[in-house]
Amino acid sequence: xxxxxxxxxxxxxxxxxxxxxxxxxxxxxxxxxxxxxxxxxxxxxxxxxxxxxxxxxxxxxxxxxxxxxxxxxxxxxxxxxxxxxxxxxxxxxxxxxxxxxxxxxxxxxxxxxxxxxxxxxxx
Length: 123
Known about the structure:
By secondary structure, the protein is an alpha+beta fold. The protein has helices spanning 8-22, 52-70, 100-106, 108-111, and strands spanning 26-32, 43-49, 76-78, 85-89, 93-99, 116-120.
């Protein structure tokens, strides 16, 4: 049986996840929002770091990896000033990089619980 062709947003999500794992991001999940009505993108990717420095390093690694792999830059980015929650918006893929306490507080996994959720092992 032939393999289904990988979409551009799925490929981008995998490059982003590699960037996260390269900086030891924790509890990486990809929420597939494609089948949900009124979803703002195809995928949300969530992870957390244990310090401001790690959260910023994860975000920087994602930006570097996507630029190197496909020439993609985030359409919008915010949260670098306080590094509690950095958001990188690649339109079809939105990345949420939290400090652990903020991730627990906002609990996006519960908010989008009807999405298909895939988890990735920490390195």
